[in-house]
């Protein structure tokens, strides 16, 4: 455990137990200098020790005063002159009876001197004391240590009669700029410190630097930066600015107590794998990740192990789809922090996908069944169902797959059209049946098609088979690696149109579309211009096909909906505080747009939490906006760096001594009451007979 170091030497040395000043005025007059009473004790108010002789005098006074005698009225007193009483009134109080009152007096004298345990040296200088507090998300894990340290520093400033300035580096929840508060009296500063809480967004050290530059008040002479231990581009400039104003001490967490970050799982992978990051990489560390449902009930737990020297690790949850889809939240066990919490929405659920059954059942020959290729590509990542249209539409589906051999009549087409307009995604594949139809139902196609199919690799195409071109940056397929062996032998072509390029997700190297899509109501229709089996291409035999299918599913709205329209904004539903607890949105919270969701803009206007309503709810996570966390870098040479004091703390013993004095007084009162009660009790001693008068008397 480290403490804030002393600067100038005091007039005398102090041991582990010191008596502090009785009043702020006295402390200011003496500048909080201790007067030694020996190698282990000292006091800030030596004049109060003049009461010690009074305690000794009280002892002798009580020792010399006898108890009040018991008066008894007796009619035959003349007959009792010669009687001797068996009960004697003591001449003085028993020695054990005046011990409680003596100890009470001594405790009261000690309390008046305001004693303190584990005192620290006076703060440097004589001007205001400034506390710079990183109260962003990274402070939440060890917030109690910061709170205790602030209280100790304010108490020390109060003993020395110095004002306090406080600079929180995180923007307030109302969205106002970061600013210095003060100079304040220690009582005012204590109230601000009590009300301060970690906020669920990063610290704004650049804003703190600007507020210091504009500071017009008296410059502080002692500055303590209660940092979060993390580095950013403004950390060094801020420390240099503080060092130019006074003596700076930086407090930071020990490596084992530094903040950790839980990243959201990847979407559309079919697995619930989370990544945990840390800033310090020295030792091995096991982290427990807990998954809970909407009601807060724990569903599963996974362990992520940091190896020595590693800054990140992963943990996976192996749950069946019906249970995985019930998860609402992931968090690091025992770490109350918004950065250690991940909220889940529809994007992380294994989306239900329906595959329309073929008109002819080829179960005996799976290589001739297009549905089997769909199943192999999607089954590990989605909740897959196969069956007739009517049965599938009774389920809650995100995507409906319609191969060329699918059995769909006119009535089913109308139902599918209605389902798409309500938000579903229809994924179609071309083939001989689609190319041979003379009259096409264009309502279930993204673009109007030409009749027939185009054959590549023949004389018309110059003997070259079709090769995939790189995916456009605006396509959901962007970033998917292309397998070089993929060749397209046949495809259906769209009719010329002005919006063909806009609706094309993938094309061949000759520019002809391979995958097209368009919005239809609230949903979308996607068409692969080739087959789902190897009849027209070997695309379905490649890993690229698996990634493309997953991208289509990810582009769907899912069951609960999805925010894609940039003109729509979702109001804050419930947000997280710095400790990762749900609460009402703050005063500065604003509706969430699609742009803000895509950019993960976390701050007072968009705190982490849920936005929207129960039918369309989007999760905004703090950790998704943080790319790396690194420990605090090099600081100026004049800056002292310490860790938070978690063990021994300054403790004011005034209350304990006052309580002890009251306890001894109560003990003395009980003794007196007991004695009076025993004296008032009935006398059970047999009465003695008076002696007979002598003859002649």
Q: Write the CATH homologous superfamily of the largest domain.
A: Class I glutamine amidotransferase (GATase) domain
> What is Rg?
41 Å
Task: Kindly state the percentage of residues in helix.
Answer: 10-25%
As for the CATH topology of the largest domain, it is: Rossmann fold
CATH class of the largest domain: Alpha Beta
Secondary structure category: alpha/beta
What portion of the residues fall into strands of 2 or more residues?
Answer: 15-25%
Contiguous runs where pLDDT drops below 50 for at least 5 residues: 1-42
First-residue to last-residue Cα separation: 92 Å
| Major beta-sheet overview | 7 strands, mixed
Any guess at the CATH architecture of the largest domain? 3-Layer(aba) Sandwich
Inertia-based shape: elongated
The averaged pLDDT comes out at 82
Strand order of the largest sheet: 18-17-19-20-25-24-23
By DSSP (H or I, 4+ residues per run), the number of helices equals: 15
How many domains, in number, for the residues? 5
Protein name: BatA domain-containing protein
Keywords: Membrane, Transmembrane, Transmembrane helix
Organism: Micavibrio aeruginosavorus
Pfam families: BatA
């Amino acid at each position: 455990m480290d403490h804030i170091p002393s600067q100038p030497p005091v007039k005398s040395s102090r041991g582990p137990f010191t008596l502090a000043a009785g009043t702020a005025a006295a402390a200011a007059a003496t500048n909080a200098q201790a007067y030694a009473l020996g190698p282990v004790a000292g006091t800030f108010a030596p004049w109060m020790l003049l009461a010690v002789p009074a305690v000794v005098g009280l002892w002798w006074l009580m020792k010399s005063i006898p108890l009040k005698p018991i008066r008894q009225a007796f009619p035959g007193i003349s007959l009792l002159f010669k009687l001797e009483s068996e009960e004697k009134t003591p001449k003085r109080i028993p020695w054990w009876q005046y011990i409680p009152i003596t100890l009470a007096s001594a405790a009261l004298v000690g309390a008046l001197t305001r004693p303190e345990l584990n005192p620290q040296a006076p703060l440097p200088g004589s001007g205001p004391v400034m506390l710079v507090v990183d109260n962003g998300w990274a402070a939440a894990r060890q917030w109690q240590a910061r709170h205790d340290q602030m209280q100790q520093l304010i108490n020390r400033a109060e003993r020395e009669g110095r004002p306090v300035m406080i600079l929180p580096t995180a923007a307030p929840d109302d969205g106002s700029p970061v600013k210095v508060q003060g100079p304040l009296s220690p009582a005012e500063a204590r109230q601000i410190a009590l009300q301060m809480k970690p906020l669920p967004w990063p610290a704004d050290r650049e804003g703190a630097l600007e507020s210091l530059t504009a500071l017009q008040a008296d410059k502080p002479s002692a500055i303590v930066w209660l940092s979060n231990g993390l580095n950013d581009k403004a950390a060094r400039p801020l420390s240099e600015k503080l060092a130019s104003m006074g003596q700076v001490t930086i407090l930071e967490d020990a490596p084992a107590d530094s903040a950790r970050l839980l990243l959201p799982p990847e979407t559309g992978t079919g697995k619930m794998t989370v990544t945990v990051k840390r800033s310090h990489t020295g030792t091995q560390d096991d982290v427990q990740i807990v998954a809970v449902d909407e009601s807060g009930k724990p569903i599963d737990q996974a362990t992520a192990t940091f190896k020595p020297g590693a800054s990140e690790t992963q943990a996976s949850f192996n749950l069946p789809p019906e249970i995985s889809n019930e998860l609402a939240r992931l968090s690091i066990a025992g770490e109350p922090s918004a950065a250690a919490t991940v909220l889940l929405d529809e994007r992380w659920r294994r989306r239900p996908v329906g595959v329309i059954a073929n008109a002819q059942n080829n179960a005996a020959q799976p290589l001739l069944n297009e549905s089997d290729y769909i199943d192999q590509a999607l089954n590990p990542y989605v909740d897959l169902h196969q069956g007739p249209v009517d049965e599938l539409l009774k389920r809650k589906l995100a995507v409906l797959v319609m191969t060329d051999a699918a059995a769909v009549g006119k009535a089913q087409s109308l139902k599918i059209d209605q389902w798409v307009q309500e938000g579903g995604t229809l994924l179609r594949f071309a083939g001989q049946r689609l190319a041979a139809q003379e009259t096409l139902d264009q309502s279930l196609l993204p673009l109007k098609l030409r009749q027939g199919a185009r054959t590549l690799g023949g004389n018309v195409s110059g003997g070259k088979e079709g090769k995939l071109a790189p995916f456009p940056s605006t396509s959901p397929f962007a970033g998917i690696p292309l397998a070089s062996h993929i060749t397209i032998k046949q495809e259906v072509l769209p009719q010329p149109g002005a919006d063909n390029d806009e609706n094309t997700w993938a094309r061949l190297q000759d520019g002809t579309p391979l995958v097209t899509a368009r919005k239809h109501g609230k949903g979308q229709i996607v068409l692969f211009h080739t087959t789902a089996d190897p009849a027209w291409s070997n695309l379905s035999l490649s890993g690229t096909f698996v990634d493309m299918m997953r991208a289509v599913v990810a582009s769907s709205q899912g069951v609960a909906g999805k925010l894609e329209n940039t003109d729509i904004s979702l109001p804050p539903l419930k947000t997280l505080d710095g400790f990762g607890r749900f609460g009402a949105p703050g005063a500065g919270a604003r509706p969430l747009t699609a742009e803000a969701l895509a950019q993960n803009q976390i701050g007072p206007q968009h705190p982490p939490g849920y936005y929207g309503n129960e039918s369309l709810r989007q999760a905004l996570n703090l950790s998704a906006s943080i790319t790396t966390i690194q420990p605090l870098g090099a600081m100026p040479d004049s800056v002292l760096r310490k860790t938070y004091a978690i063990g021994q703390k300054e403790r004011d013993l005034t209350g304990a001594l006052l309580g002890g004095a009251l306890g001894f007084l109560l003990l003395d009162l009980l003794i007196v009451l007991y004695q009076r009660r025993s004296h008032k009790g009935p006398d059970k001693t047999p009465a003695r007979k008076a002696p007979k008068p002598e003859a002649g008397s």
